[in-house]
Design a protein that fits this description.
The complex is a heterodimer of chains A (about 600) and B (about 200). With about 600 residues, chain A is mainly α. Chain A has helices at about 5-30, 40-55, 65-85, 105-115, 130-160, 170-195, 240-250, 270-295, 300-325, 360-375, 390-400, 410-430, 445-470, 485-500, 515-545, 560-595, and strands spanning about 205-220, 225-235, 340, 435, 440. Chain B starts with a helix and ends in a 5-residue tail after the last helix. Classes of the chains: A mainly alpha (about 600), B mainly alpha (about 200).
């Protein structure tokens, strides 16, 4: 680890901290329908949209209607995506003449982008046409994020309203999130990315003549080796910047290219890398301020922000430390003669460089991996599968904790508020009082709903992983790495899918019937079995009376609350997943130290 | 329920036009106007000679495979057959994977065959995340200077000057890592001291 590395991490965090307040206040105004400077641009579009679709913007929805409308909209967009993927060979803007997408892969991808997961079982530049990427994948990047923001706002309203039956209007919240927040930010942000070198065009792939032709030797299935000379390089192009912007800002993470944000056309410079990491955390961090403002308890918003920050820095420290270490297997006695320089110096970042780009080095790769899994983004600028065992443990644990460390846009906040409900419940149990949260009594129904989510989440991850491990032909045949790392690959896949993250230990060949369908199921469970119980809590809280604080009330804006919240998150996560983790990354770490390869 | 479905369908169509078509087209229009070269991938062409159209030879951002002794070598690549820019990928080998250790062992051996005196910088024997990394570290460039000087009949000082000219410092002085663009460096090398046939 270097001083410069930590300085870059500090700059990143300072930017997030500085922008959280203004954006958080702006979002509160947008969702409370107060006047903002952007009204004159977007209000006419908003009204036109409501007129076309027959939406009554004054209509208020109960939590049940809010849920049903959200589910219908998700289903309609999911089916539209499936249809376009299946028909892309007949549609325009397909200069590479890519074929239609296979049914199981199309379904997996449609679910993946609808649920804000952006798990990708395919190589985008060889599978998806420009039109498919724009119309369906980038579209979902906007609207799965906007829906997430709408849901978080509905929950905040549930907390702040009293004796009310309704939570707002799903269409209005979604529209205002997409028009007032996401669209203008992405317009500017996409152009900033282009200024760094992210491509934005509709060219067919360019064919370059290699400066030094390559001799490629391949061994065929019959065991014969064939030698061919490769003289050209096909350079994939596309409308990347417009999708890259919302991919990061909406914590989606689905790459335009297979290598995602490691690809030089998606993330060409250290500055574009900083922008991308910053934009992952921007809206989730701002939402803590929106929470504080809409519930009229700013200090509570900051207490939640503090809990997130503590967990964030812990993750960065472990990941950065682990990745900066030399691989001990390159120093074993039999390889003494190898003479590899793995040490950090002024002219190299050293450490574990497999799967990492030179322009990002160790610090920015470890930071990106932590940020993308703290949030439900899942974009990667380095390959998590090639991280050191403890370096790879960090992204895995981040997702297992529920992606509440800033988290997804909206999703991070409502995930965190489920843990807040548990934290005040546990605090209430300790002092023997009915727990209260911001003046609302937390009762049996609310805790049951919170527990429903807390139980279904690990059930999906561990259940699907266990089934995959028991099926040699369906589950194990896809592994790229043997030994404990193989378990980590499967565990990571279902953790990422259920957590709606979308990053991967990408050695796993997931484009099979089994993985496409089971991961799609995990993504649906992870998204909707979290949202519906959360909306139920919101509806229940909205109906409650406000009880004035008494001396026995557990305050939710103090450092003590922050400590308790962090404790609850870690204990729930650790108790649930430690056995699986100890057989995967932790065992791999110990065996690596002992000099064992697989 | 029927009404909700109709609303959802209409909403999907209307917002798809705005966010799925208008938005990317507007970004493309402005990007092509303001940053034409960057929006198109910073492509490199040969100089036009009389009678021959300029030929596309790559992109400043996309690495190419270089393994010949007379060129600065780029990093190993797991993209397709190596540096396949329509099939980007890392190796996804775990640090404990025997295939990784074997690959590195053999790459170190061949590197030390060419440049026997110093330890091989780690980036020169590890595959990047994209398989298209255009850069190597300054350490990896320095490591190859002796060989290049010998192969191109240049002094080490002259090669060092070339490397220095193509070394990009941290962006804004503190962001990222210092790096050397291999394709740019090799093209400059071909201009300065062409390989003698």
């Amino acid at each position: 680890m270097t001083a410069n590395g930590w300085f870059q991490i500090a700059i990143f965090f300072a930017l997030v901290l500085a922008c959280a307040t203004p954006l958080g206040i702006y979002m509160a105004r947008v969702f409370e329908r107060q006047h903002t400077f952007a009204d004159r641009f977007f209000r006419p579009i908003e009204r036109l949209l409501y007129r076309i679709c027959g939406i009554d913007e004054t209509h208020e929805m109960r939590w049940t209607e809010y849920s049903i409308v959200m589910l219908i909209f998700s289903l309609v967009t999911l089916l539209a995506t499936y249809a376009i993927e299946r028909l892309q060979h007949l549609l325009p803007l397909n200069p590479q003449h890519l074929a239609n997408v296979a049914p199981d892969l199309a379904l997996n991808t449609a679910v993946s982008f609808t649920t804000n997961t952006n798990w990708q079982s395919y190589v985008p530049e060889a599978t998806m046409s420009y039109l498919t990427q724009m119309l369906t994948l980038a579209y979902h990047n906007f609207f799965s994020a906007a829906v997430g923001m709408a849901l978080a706002v509905a929950l905040i309203r549930g907390i702040s309203r009293k004796e009310s039956k309704t939570l707002g209007n799903f269409w209005v919240d979604t529209t205002r999130a997409s028009l007032w927040v996401l669209l203008p930010t992405c317009l500017i942000y996409a152009l900033l990315l282009v200024s760094q070198g992210v491509v934005q065009n509709f060219r067919p792939y360019d064919q370059a003549t290699l400066v030094q032709p390559q001799t490629v030797t391949a061994t065929g299935t019959d065991g014969k080796t064939t030698t061919t000379t490769v003289t050209t390089q096909s350079i994939a192009q596309g409308p990347v910047a417009s999708q890259e912007a919302i991919k990061m800002l909406g914590t989606n993470g689905g790459g335009f290219f297979n290598a995602n944000s490691a690809h030089p056309f998606e993330n060409p410079t250290p500055l574009s890398n900083l922008m991308e990491m910053f934009s992952i955390f921007l809206i989730p961090a701002a939402f803590t301020v929106t929470l504080g403002r809409m519930t009229r308890s700013p200090a509570h918003g900051w207490a939640v922000f503090a809990a997130m920050s503590v967990l964030f820095f812990a993750g960065v420290f472990v990941a950065y430390y682990a990745e900066a270490q030399p691989n001990p297997l390159l120093h074993t006695s039999s390889m003494q003669a190898m003479h590899i320089d793995q040490h950090v110096s002024a002219s190299q970042s050293g450490g574990n460089m497999e799967g990492k780009e030179v322009r990002f080095g160790i610090a920015n790769s470890a930071l990106f991996a932590t940020v993308t899994t703290d949030a439900s983004c899942g974009a990667v600028n380095s390959m998590h599968d090639s991280f050191m065992p403890l370096g790879g443990l960090v992204p895995l644990v981040n997702i297992m904790l529920g992606e509440v460390i800033f988290g997804g846009v909206g999703a991070g906040l409502y995930g965190m508020l489920i843990f807040v409900v548990l934290a005040v419940f546990i605090a209430g149990l300790m002092v023997g009082r009915t727990p209260e949260y911001l003046g609302k009594k937390i009762e049996a129904f609310d805790v049951k709903m919170a527990m429903l989510y807390v139980l279904i989440f690990p059930l999906s991850i561990l259940g699907f992983s266990a089934v995959s491990l028991m099926m040699p032909n369906l589950g194990l045949a896809s592994l790229a790495n043997a030994g404990p790392h193989g378990l980590s690959e499967i565990l990571y896949a279902y953790t990422s899918a259920t957590g709606n993250n979308g990053s991967a230990f990408a050695g796993l060949s997931a484009n099979t019937h089994w993985y496409n369908l089971s991961l799609a199921a995990a993504m649906l469970i992870g998204r909707f079995f979290m949202i519906v119980p959360m909306l139920a809590i919101a509806g229940s809280l909205a109906e409650k009376k406000l009880v004035p604080p008494s001396p026995g009330t557990f305050p939710v804006h103090t450092p003590l609350f922050t400590v308790l919240l962090v404790g609850v998150i870690l204990i729930v996560g650790a108790l649930t997943f430690f056995p699986a983790l100890s057989l995967g990354p932790i065992l791999e770490h110990l065996l690596m130290q002992a000099g064992k390869t697989f | 329920m029927k009404r909700n479905i109709l609303t959802a369908v209409l909403y999907t169509v209307a917002t798809t036009i705005l966010f799925g078509l208008v938005y990317p087209l507007v970004v493309t229009g402005i990007a092509q106007l303001l940053f034409k070269d960057k929006a198109n991938g910073q492509l490199i062409y040969t100089q036009a000679t009389s009678g021959a159209a300029p030929q596309l030879i790559g992109s400043h951002l996309i690495g190419q495979p270089f393994t010949a002794p007379a060129y600065f070598h780029s990093r190993p690549s797991a993209a397709g057959n190596g540096y396949d820019a329509a099939n980007s990928s890392g190796s996804n080998y775990a640090p404990t994977n025997k295939k990784l250790i074997d690959r590195i062992t053999s790459d170190v051996a061949s590197n030390r065959h060419d440049d026997p005196d110093t330890a091989v910088p780690i980036d020169l024997v590890t595959a990047s995340g994209s398989g298209l990394d255009p850069d190597i570290t300054p350490a990896a460039a320095d490591f190859q200077v002796t060989r290049i000087a010998r192969q191109r009949h240049l002094s080490e000082d002259a090669v060092n000057r070339l490397v220095a000219a193509h070394t990009q410092p941290r962006q804004l002085g503190f962001l990222g890592e210092p790096r050397v663009n291999v394709l740019e460096l090799n093209l400059d090398l071909d201009r300065t001291a062409p390989i003698k046939p």
